[in-house]
Every structure is written in structure tokens, then in C-alpha cells.
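Take a minute with the sequence and C-alpha cells given here and flag any C-alpha cell that looks odd. Thanks in advance.
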Amino acid sequence: MARRLIRLWRFATVIGVIAVVLLIEVSPAWRGLHAALLALDFDSERAWLIEAWLAGATVAFFGALVTGRPWLSSALAVGFVGLSYVAPMGARLISTAPSLFGVQDRVAVDALAHNQLVALAMSFLAAVPFAATGYLLSREIRPLLRGRRFMTRALRPAALLAALAASAALAPSVEPLLRIGPEAGVYQPGPQLPHLAGSTGNPSASAEIVPTAGQVLRLTYHSQAMGEERNFNLYLPPTYGLKSAVRRRYPTLYLLHGDPSGPNEWLNYETPALFDAGFVRGDLPETIVVMPDGNGRVTAATQWANRWDGQDRIEDALLELVAVVDREYRTMADRQYRLIGGLSSGAFGAVNIAARHPDLFGVAMGFSGYYFARGPVFGSDAAYINDNSPIVLIQRSPAARSVHYILAVGAADHYRAYMDQFAQQLRRFGVSYDSTVVPGGHEAQVWIDGLVYSLRVIETQLAIPANDHRSRDERLLSRSYIYSSPTGNDKFRWPSA
């Protein structure tokens, strides 16, 4: 009878602990935690993931405190996270698979299961120290509960070591979950159709099968500005390597990452797959995409600018990369076909660099960005800050107004006010621009949606009339067709060399 009462008491305490944690999750303090995570540029999905781990750790702490069983409390915490977050997250991602160009993305079940296991493993690793703390406190305030062991002495340590080893092995995989979110790698492009090379710029060549995917190269170049070899990623479109396209040249898009991050960020968002799918379905033009590294040696968050004291010259390093890419690859080396875009601090960098170098970039895309210089990289010199603030450059520099700006932001993003402020400045000075607000916050899906929106805007604005039979050089010299107002259903096509 006594043992039964002890079991009932432990069960009741476990239920009580879970109830307490559920009450904490609806408290004003917990809502303040959610707001604080959003303020750190985490989107809601990643904020919920972090909150789930904290909630599980809280369950482990109080569970060990009242039961005196830290390992059981850690397991209880994992179960709590699994039922309250991981399982609903999986069901949500499966039911809300996005569509790209009318084709619904395929859910990679193995990637989803892997992400769920990583989330559970991290919840276990987070729960263990909290449970240990609760256990130590329980020893100070009351004797250990004595009850029947649920494992033999030989099996229990082996099982615990195995659980710790498995969780530690999965822990390095947490970075994509925090950087991108639980949907990292879950969605794959839908089925694509093979292409025949009929529009590669050489109609006399024999028909070739065009690959449905481009090629991603991981490269380095020497930067004199930084005095070092710097990494960058390069995406070559599907037709680039075809014999029939050997004389064809391609526009170039430079995509800048945010902070803290690196040149792989746009790859993590599966940007090459987006261009592949858009090309196969005829919705996006073939483009060479360059993804550089914007990290410095003195300041990691360089905002793609030259540091005020000259120690990090990231802007100059990027300009050097432009020259390298134009020299080594078949680009259309003209500002009208050289585009730059970025997300968050990369959005600032893209717009700032284009405004400062309108002779190199004709289009600048900003996704969830701000448009004024801020932070230690710019120092305290007001003149230098103004010279690196797009919102000021638009007012001072007529050349900066020749760039076409395309802006996108999430409806729930606190950076939305910055976009509205910059758009107002563009309107004030009659600068050509487009802007959109898409569902979401400061998150990956917003940046992908902004990129797709921008490319579709460019399709119309750079459309070449079907009856324009001038040579490519004549068209480039004229430029009268560049940035015309949208004309409805005009279909963009990149001119061939």
C-alpha cells in the first residue's frame, strides 16, 4: 500500500511539474522571452524551438527537484518537448509544404526526421544539467526518495551513456536549425521536365539535352584589399557548359549573406534549386549567381563596408571579386546585367554598395534590410557614416538615383519601418523602385519570396521587344529599353552574345 501511494505521489508530482511549466509558458515573462528572441533576428519558428528547449529544461529541473530522479526527469523533459513541439512541428511542415512556380515542393521525410531527432537530442542535452542541478538541490532540502529501481545496475549506466553519446553526435547538426529553422533541408524541388537546347544562342548546333540543374563551385580568389585568399560560392546555370552555348553570356547576381553567417547561407536556403526550378519551368532567366564572404578579421559583422580605420576593406574586396568573375566567366559585364542583393545586413550592404558604385550595379535588392549606417564598423565620424548610408546617398548623389531598387520585407518584421522609410526617400527623389510586403517575419522564407519577387520584377523591366533586331552591343549602348515601366505580359529573355 505504501509503495502504491509513493507511485501515485510521484505521478501526481510529475503532472504538477508539467502543469507548472505550461502555466509559465503562457505567462507575461515567457511572452517577453519570445519578444526578446524576435528582437535578436530569430523568426517565430526558431524562437519556438529555443523556447521548447528551455521549457524542457525547466521540466527536468523541477522534476528532479521533487522526485530526486535526474535521469528520469531528463527523459520526461524529452517527452514533453516531443509532444508539445517536435511532433506538432513535423505535422505542420508536412501540411504546409510550399509551392514554387506552381509545383509543390516534395517533403524529404528523412530530413524532417533528422531535424526532429536533432531537436530531441538538444532537448536531452539541455535537460541533463538542469536535472542535475535540481537533484543536487533536492539532496540539500530532503532525503532521497527510496523506491524500486526501474533498471538493473548494469543496464542503467549503459543506457544513459548511449543516450548521451547519441545526443552529442547529433548536437553539431543544430546549426541549420538555428540559422534556417526546423524546415532546413525538409523541402526539395518538385519533379522537373528535361529540356532540349533550343534557346542557347546557337540554333545551328545539334540538339543537346540541357541539364535540369546548374553547377555550384566553391572557389577562392586573392584579395589585395584584404591581403588574403577569400572564399566565395558560384552557381553556373544549366546551359553554361553546353557546346551550343559556348558564345553565350549571362547576367550576374551577387547575393550577400547576413550576420552572423557566411557564403554558404544562400546555399542553405537552396537558392540554386530555386534557379533550377525557375529555369526548367520558364519562370526565371538563367543567371550566374555569386555568393561571397563578407566576414572581416577585425569585425565579423562588417555590413559589407570598409571599416572606418581601414583594417577590414570588405567593400573593396567585393569589387575585386566582380573583376575576377567578369574575367574568368562569360558574364555580361555591364551594370544593366549585373545585379546585387542581400538579406538583413546583407540587404544594407547590397543597397549601399550599389548606391556607392552605380557604374557597376544597375539593380539592388534588399530583403529585410535597414538603409542607414550603424555599428562600430563605421566609427563615430558623421561624414563617413553619411557616406555609407543609402538613405543619405539618395539625397546627395544623382548617380545613386540611377540604380533601380527592389525591396521586400516580412509583414511581421520590425525592419518593415526601415523599408517604408527608405521607400519614402526614393519616392521623394523620383527614384525607380519596387517594393513588397510578404507574410512572415525576419526569416528565410521571406528572403526567398523577396528574391523571387525581385527576379520577376526584372523580367518585365528588362524585357527586350520581340522586334528589336539590334546587336547586343547596340542594345547595350542604347539602354533605352532598360527600366521601362511594367508592360503587362512582356516575357524577359536574356540576350545571347
Notes: The chain is about 45% helix and 15% strand. The longest helix spans residues 109-141. The domain at 195-478 is CATH 3.40.50.1820 (Rossmann fold).
